[in-house]
Amino acid sequence: MLWRSPSQQDHGLHIGLINAFNHLGVLAAQGKEAQAIETLIIASECDEVGLGTSLTRKGKRIGADKAREIIDLFKVIPRYQQSGFRHFEEIQLFIEGISKDRISDIGCNFLKSFLIDFTIEQCQKLSVPTQDCTVEHVYDARLGMFKREVGVPLPVNPENGSPIIFVPKRWLRFAPWISYDEYFEKHCPQDEISHKPEELTRVKVLNYNRQNYGVIDQYIQLKERTADDCAHDPLFSQIPITSAKRVFAEIKKLPTGKTNGADVKYEKLVGRLLPSLFYPSLDFAQEQARTDDGVSIRDLIFYNTRSTPLLQELMDDYGSRQITFEMKNVAAIERTHIDQINRYLTDELGKFGVFVTRKPLKRAEFQRTVNLWGGQRKAVITLTDADLERMVEVFDSKQRAPLDILNMKYREFQRACP
Asked: Is the pTM of this model over 0.70?
């Protein structure tokens, strides 16, 4: 967003950010690779800003081996060796384990000096209380390195006293404009990498990209040409009650199955309805979200705000930083559907998932979900048309939260478990 912004200040900050990152390549070329690696490790986590999925706002920095992989891009790809990166987000397309949260952390750390000034200005403007804090690792562009620490007045986390740094809303997107998921889905020459989809792993794609930089260069040029479509994510607004009723009425009219694209229509309608019903308890909904390996697609995921006892319980018991919803416009959920959602419920995102389907599970399939909990401590519950209707009703009446229906279904599932 810095690169896309109409603000000349933002343009200058983007140039400074890219220069700071490309300076790592200069250090490596001068025989100072150890210094470049140390700088990149420091830049890889920004606790004060706290973007990402960490429960405690305390993330983990990359290791020396991962930092060396990134620095090596300046050596193995001629474009970066000669003129550096245009957008350092490109490292997502070459290095395993580098995703949007790491990109935001690196950007925030190199820009931390500006963000501190921005935070102080906003606190003065909005009368937000501050106290004297010690902030570690503030980048000095003149020296090309991080200072050990600086003392500044900042707002603090009331629970632990740690400093908080604000970020301008105009910079924020749920995912970077240049991202691996979007590249893999729409631009990656998948058939050239593997003719067998089940063998197309993220690692194979990244290795192919390193050996075929021309493909990445074409993708970057396309993203630059379509920059007018790049915008910060606006604040979420719920659909009106009348629209929620209308959306549910359209869902009820749909036949089960795939006839005339009924399955796609069902996913779109449910994907429009649920974010409004669950907001603000569940937020940052993303449809058709790929798993980390880039192969499988989850229908709908929500960031778990942990703002209610239920959501905190799901985090504590199942590690659900995000909650997976699978929409199935079928007459009956089958074993293959349960096996599919089971694959999605991993330690990275959490082991709690939800089927959104037309009818309750048959006894045999319901027992499979109970067995899944008994064997692997994974919980899968089901929301049906009847449950969606109740959600819309409470959404209309405002007497209860639609999330209470999800809570009720989970308690019913719990009672059935051994």
From this structure: no
